Structure prediction request, 115 residues.
Amino acid sequence: MSEPSVFSRIIAREIPALIVRETDRLIAFKDIAPKAPVHFLIVPKTEQYANITELAAGDPGLLAEIVAVAQELADEYSNGQYRLLFNTGPEAGQTVFHVHAHLLGGGLTESTIGF
Ligand code: 5GP
Prediction:
């Protein structure tokens, strides 16, 4: 069996993180290397799905929960507006193969969002 992902270790409280939301099926916490004033990762507790394509096919309801939590957190920590990003594949910048959404907000500018 493969090692638990870094996100599973955060969920198990083996690695500390600034957790901003937790439900039965999801956790959200601050990215360790934020790229915007608000930069949270929203992560299913299962690491069964490596990326958004697998998640959408396997559990679309869980993907919808990610979007709902993104809006709630943007309402709470940003101005209700946000960018939701799923890097998919190493050449697209994915480094952790346990599906996660990047929630970016809090006054995005060209320099904080890249484009
Ligand atoms: P990816 O590059 O796979 O789309 O995103 C992985 C993200 O996880 C990166 O933005 C990185 O900063 C974040 N990350 C990696 N390790 C940790 C960690 O131990 N704690 C937290 N809070 N974020 C992490």
